[in-house]
């Protein structure tokens, strides 16, 4: 049943079926249920060059996807995420149809508060749904939240290993070039600490299909000031590599 609204993005269909549905396709199942989604192509190249990951499968299509497995931990797969909820969370649903049920996400995002340092880790507790994708999976609401059980497993591990972190929600937007000063201030007032483009969609897919999902996003560029400061966020190779390896340990905890 379609719950109607004046705005199409807020209309919600309670029907669990869909015409295009990867769960109907009898897809070949992965040999494991654990996956890392990362947005660090430099780390992926380093892992490949060092022989630490090997190609598990190539998923063909208009936007082909490659999934790798760790050679010393074959129970863990890793793939490079695509930008935006439709691409990243859409692929996540496909992966779920292939049997993946424990997923750890790592990426970078723009900080809404300059006190969040470059490389500071944010354990994602939820997202402000300023996009369209999640509204096809979960009924309209301003926020969506991660599973507290998974979030607690992540923070418990970080505490036990004395790894510094903060917790909080993100602002998920579809429009990276429309992060205006007024919207930044509004989202910050609503509790968002970082702006990014995938979390609301990924959390929605995980909720809809009832699998374990966690995410860590490190503080990247600064969009909180009058002028954008990149802070060379995408050049922090050590931080990015270490975060991927941390996610290997975390996904084992799920």
Question: Would you write up a description of this structure?
Answer:
28% of the residues lie in helices and 29% in strands. It is built from 6 helices and 12 strands. The protein is globular. The mean pLDDT is 96.
Any key phrases for this structure?
alpha/beta, 6 helices, 254 residues, five-stranded mixed barrel, 29% strand
Order of helix and strand elements from N to C terminus: EEEHEEEHEEEHEHEHEH
Provide the structure class.
alpha/beta
> Describe the biggest sheet?
5 strands, mixed, barrel
Helix content: 25-40%
Strand order of the largest sheet: 7-11-10-8-12
DSSP strand tally: 12
What does this entry show, briefly?
The protein is of the alpha/beta class and 254 residues long.
Task: List the topology elements.
Layout: E1 2-3, E2 12-13, E3 34-38, H1 41-49, E4 53-59, E5 65-70, E6 76-80, H2 85-97, E7 102-111, E8 121-130, E9 143-145, H3 148-160, E10 166-173, H4 181-189, E11 192-196, H5 199-209, E12 212-222, H6 237-253
Parallel strand pairs: 3-6, 3-7, 7-12, 8-10, 10-11
Antiparallel strand pairs: 1-2, 4-5, 5-6, 7-11, 8-9, 8-12
